[in-house]
Amino acid sequence: MQELSWIREGRCNSRCVKTEMTSRMPSSSSVTQARQLVRQLRMEANIRRIRVSKASSDLMRYCGEQAKYDPLLMGIPASENPFRDKKPCTVL
Amino acid sequence: MSQDPLEGCRISAGKKSAVSLGKALHPPNLLVVVEGTCGACVAASPVSAPEGSCSYNVAHHHLCVCVRVCMAWQGLQKGETLASLKQESENLRRKLEEERGKLTDVELHQVAEKVETVAALSIKTRRVLKGHGNKVLSMDWCKDKRRLVSSSQDGKVIVWDAFTLNKEHGITLPCTWVMACAYAPSGCAVACGGLDNKCSVVPLSLDRNENVTAKKKSVAMHTNYVSGCSFTNSDMQLLTSSGDGTCALWDVESGQLLQSFHGHTADVLSLDLAPSETGNTFVSGGCDMKANVWDMRSGQNIQSFDNHQSDINCVKYYPSGDAFASASDDATCRFYDLRADREVAVYQKDSIIFGASSVDFSLSGRLLFAGYNDYTINVWDVLKGTRVSVLFGHENRVSRVRVSPDGTALCSASWDNTLRVSRT
């Protein structure tokens, strides 16, 4: 049990200890796994796709339409920005 | 299994000797592997089972051996072998690449050449949230655009008001490394989880004197650490990702598992729900270098992307829901379009050699904020693929970046025990 928590800590610390999957997967024949993989790939190969040119232009159009509402992109006019850098003020 | 698994098999009884029989009982369904040491006297050590087998223990004390009955090769079809299935999967993978390639008539950055370049950004750190005693691992904004929740390695979860820097609630968890935290859509609760293998929901009360930790309720139970959590559109359902390789959807009230998502072959490190207008899907990324898109109702893996060369630390949907970005230990961030079913951009530079831990989009989706292990946050132009700006300030690796719900602020959490809220 202690070993296991070390592995978890190691996982968090160095991100290079990969937990062993085989011991935790429900037992199944590799034939079943291979069959499932084939089924999954077949399904993925058959989905409907659109051209990258169409996808790209849609993304660009979305960015363009929403850009004016994006404060981090456009900035906020100094008059409305509560976080603007303060100028020194003089006391008369 | 009504029949006696030992029928027709000769067994050499003997303590502490591993004997393999190799006799098919119900050809080609069963293969019996016998190993020494009875389950009653000494715990049997796992024997390396032949490929294609699973096992359960049947102790036969009078023989003083433990029998593992392997139920392999459940009804192989005629002519179907492991090799033929492997070949078919290779062919299908090739076909998948071909189909994707056919529709790649142009690259995103080429189409984006006619778009105006992003003007120089003037984003500065406006608030530094100090109070955690150890590395801050995760944070999430509340929908009121003002509060945020953060969790840390020391087991503390703090709810802050980002304007006033007030700590509104402090929750202590019995475990360290609270890797996941999320704010409920109503703002009335937070979820958190980590090395305790659980994800708990804590209702927040307006009464300052009330002990919030006492009302903590365990909702999700995994068999390994919880790496990410998110409420769905309501406070009633919670989606979690775990080091056990699965994601799961839970009912908060009853703690019941509603749906589980299997498909990753290693730890799942991150998940993100599609923006509500686009339906019931979510994306997850993990140590198997894959990013998978799932249907929440059926539990089905709809699409899978394996372009990264190392663990995927974070995945985030594009605001329109038609695309998503991922951050990985291979020092790149990538952008995938779901309708074109392929990666459409890679955000990398030779000078960036440290892994990216977290990504988030600005409100319009034009900017991608990515936190890296070299203590910086790089801001990328999503369409053109170029780096717009670098944000400095943290003194240790950046673990999480999140843009506020109204898009006015960026919060970054870091292993330097602080959170920084940056604005223009």
TrEMBL record, chain A:
Which PROSITE patterns does the record match to this protein? G_PROTEIN_GAMMA
Give me the gene this protein comes from.
GNG12
Identify its protein family: Belongs to the G protein gamma family.
Q: Which GO terms describe its molecular function?
A: G-protein beta-subunit binding
Q: Which GO terms describe its biological process?
A: G protein-coupled receptor signaling pathway
SUPFAM superfamilies per record: Transducin (heterotrimeric G protein), gamma chain
Q: Where in the cell is it found?
A: Cell membrane
Recorded hits in Pfam families, A to Z, give: G-gamma
Quaternary structure, per UniProt, is: G proteins are composed of 3 units; alpha, beta and gamma.
A single Gene Ontology CC term:
heterotrimeric G-protein complex
Cross-referenced CDD domains, in alphabetical order? Answer: GGL
Does the UniProt entry include the keyword Membrane? yes
Q: What is this protein called?
A: Guanine nucleotide-binding protein subunit gamma
G protein gamma domain span: 27-92
How does this protein lie in the membrane?
Answer: Lipid-anchor
Stated role: Guanine nucleotide-binding proteins (G proteins) are involved as a modulator or transducer in various transmembrane signaling systems. The beta and gamma chains are required for the GTPase activity, for replacement of GDP by GTP, and for G protein-effector interaction.
- Could you list this entry's UniProt keywords, alphabetically sorted: Cell membrane, Lipoprotein, Membrane, Methylation, Prenylation, Transducer
Which top-rank group of organisms is this from? Eukaryota
**Which InterPro entries does the annotation name?**
G-protein_gamma, G-protein_gamma-like_dom, GGL_sf
Q: Does the keyword Cell membrane apply?
A: yes
Automatic annotation (TrEMBL), chain B:
Coiled-coil segments, which residues? 82-109
- Any GO BP annotation: signal transduction
- What InterPro entries is this protein classified in? G-protein_beta_1-5, WD40/YVTN_repeat-like_dom_sf, WD40_G-protein_beta-like, WD40_PAC1, WD40_repeat_CS, WD40_repeat_dom_sf, WD40_rpt
Per UniProt, which keywords does this protein have?
Answer: Coiled coil, Repeat, Transducer, WD repeat
Q: WD repeats located where?
A: 129-161, 219-260, 261-304, 305-346, 358-390, 391-424
Note whether Transmembrane helix occurs among the keywords.
no
Summarize the subunit comment. Answer: May interact with RGS9; this interaction stabilizes both proteins and increases RGS9 GTPase-activating protein (GAP) activity, hence accelerating the deactivation of D(2) dopamine receptor-mediated signaling.
Give the family per the record: Belongs to the WD repeat G protein beta family.
Question: Per its record, how is this protein called by name?
Answer: Guanine nucleotide-binding protein subunit beta-5-like
